[in-house]
Amino acid sequence: MFLYDVVKVIYSPVKAFREVLANPKYLGPIIIIIISLFLTMGTQYVSSSKYYIETIAPSNRVAWTNMTDPSSMWTSNGTVSKISQNSSILVGNYSVIASIPNSRGISLKTKTDSIGTIDCSEESGFRTFYYKLWYNSTLAQKVSNAILRFVSFNNESNYFQFDLLSNAGYLNNSGTWINANVTLPHAPVTSVSGWTIGGSPDWSNITGIEFRLGFPQNGNLSIQLNDLNFGGKYQPLIDVEGFANWLSSNLVISVLNILVRWLIFAALLWLTIKVFHAEGSAFRTLMIIVGYTFAITFVYLPIEMLSVSQLPVLYFPYRVWFPTSTREIGLANTAISNIFATNWTSTAPYIASIAVAPISYAWTIGLFTIALKTLHSSSWKRTVMISLVAYVMALVLSGIVLSVF
Questions:
Q1: What number is the average pLDDT over the span 187-196?
Q2: Which residues are 224's β-sheet partners?
Q3: What percent of the chain has pLDDT over 90?
Q4: CATH for the stretch 56-235
Q5: DSSP characters for 227-263?
Q6: What ranges do the domains of the chain cover?
């Protein structure tokens, strides 16, 4: 009998509401809402499976450059220490700095075993190296040579080396920060501009990082590093968050969303009836009516789920999905919007999934109208107005309430 009532609400709402209101019970709406919850979770799972988030090493962005004692991890031909920084642009409260007087060159590199072993293999490893770098020379000299070196197997004879002067995007002028990322090459590196190789390194076994800058003349030199990370490796959002965490957080939000909408829709429908001086209805009866209108989720949620399943995967950089600095936070929303606009907005499946929402709104208002007309002898015009006003107010209020959570 229950399934018959549900189907009837979808294809023959007038008869369905007459039968429901002849013997109103909570059991039907409760079962409908439980099924609606499962469909909602299914839709969210399909959507989340389309989100791939960049993962980084180390997982904590400040782990290598915001240290109490940088000399425990870093070494240089000069003196290594930490320095306070502008956290609105950079990450963390400090950066690692190395300084040396009266020299033509300065280096800053990690100590043996300080970063562990990083897998940068082409098949499954990290394929991008991010860094923020600042340097200074008291003579305001331009750098004559600058290299980035990745040591392999904890042996400085085995390395991949990159010429930072091969592109303007890897090194700024003296006294200014650069926010750079280096794409790690596919083998063999000798075929890639700017890369050289020493010994027998392996991208799956990177154990050290070194920056080395050279200048034409002796001077007081310093080099400062911030936010060093390997990245370029993407995983589904559900894997990044962990399935248990994803399920618990989304389940709580979905339950709250459905229950809040159920209660607010019924309350505002009851209140609007009072404002319009229409015949009164018991709040319990209106709760049951609103509960049965959730039956339309059996139609539009599967359509939405199918549409979303046809969309391409979205790739979100770590700094966009987990912004840290004030500058990154300000840019993150724009970056995410651009990713959606570039990959989804103009596609037919996305347009279909978006079109479902206004159709469901209109359908729900229509069901409210039919139910109220079945309950009372008010005119169709008044009944439509009551349903429309109540539904719009309920959407706004439920959105405000749910935003708190």
A1: 77
A2: 97, 134
A3: 57
A4: 2.60.120.260
A5: EEEEEEEEEEHHHHH-HHHHHHHHHHHHHHHHHHHHH
A6: 2-48+242-311+347-403, 56-235
Write the CA distances from 156 to 110, 151, 185, 270, integer angstroms. Answer: 11, 6, 20, 76
Structure tokens belonging to residue 72: 């425990």
Q: Can you tell me the distance from the alpha carbon of 326 to that of 89, in angstroms, rounded to the nearest whole number?
A: 6
Beta strands 206-236; 128-137: pairing state = antiparallel
Nearest to 285 by CA among 310, 304, 266, 257: 266
**How is residue 395 written in tokens?**
């959407």
- Per DSSP (E only), the strands in 118-154 are 128-137, 145-152
pLDDT tens, position by position, 221-251: 999 999 999 999 999 999 998 999 988 988 8
CA distance 329 to 319: 9
Is pLDDT at 402 greater than 80 in this prediction? no
Provide the pLDDT for residue 14. 85
How deeply is 383 buried, as exposed, middle or buried, from its count of CB atoms within 10 A (0-12, 13-18, 19+)?
buried
Question: Distance between CA atoms of 127 and 345, rounded to whole angstroms?
Answer: 28
Longest distance between any two alpha carbons in the chain, whole Å: 95
Residues contacting residue 303 through CB under 8 Å, at least 6 positions apart: 352, 353, 356
Report the predicted TM-score, pTM, of the whole model to 2 decimal places.
0.84
Handedness of CA 55, 60, 62, 65 (dihedral sign): negative
Q: What are the phi and psi torsion angles at 270 (to 5°)?
A: -65, -45
pLDDT digits (tens, 9 = 90+) for 73-108: 999 999 999 999 877 788 989 999 999 999 999 999
Contacts with 213 (C-beta within 8 Å, 6 or more apart), sequence order? 105, 106, 107, 135, 143, 145, 146, 221, 223
